[in-house]
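Morning!

This is the sequence you dropped in the shared folder:
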Amino acid sequence: MNNKLKTIIIEDDMVSRMILENYCKNHPNIELVNDFDDVESALAYLSKEKVNLILLDIQLKNSSGFDLLKHIPPETKVIITTGNKDNISIAQKMGINNYLIKPITLEEFLWSIKKLPLEPNEMLN
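The structure's back. Tokens below.
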């Protein structure tokens, strides 16, 4: 049984995306299945595939991560990655599980994953 969290990253800044990819690929309980730099591509993917976790930037070049939050199932966990603290209160009202302020350290990332509410079939080692 695969207990890894199927995860996607939605981030338009290449450096931030690479950092998150590295953190995910080196986490024993995360399976990074895809990454996107815009909401449209991510929504197209999510219409066909189910994921457990989304690492979501709010301020994207051509769209807002808030647009995506309106379309994801409630059981999907979301961690906001943002450089703007002003976005956090809005995102919390929309049901996110956690947020990380850029630049994101490995310790912050690990803490955020550890604090996710998990279903019994998603229990992490």
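Headline: Residues 89 and 96 are 10 Å apart (CA to CA).

More detail when I'm at my desk.
O.
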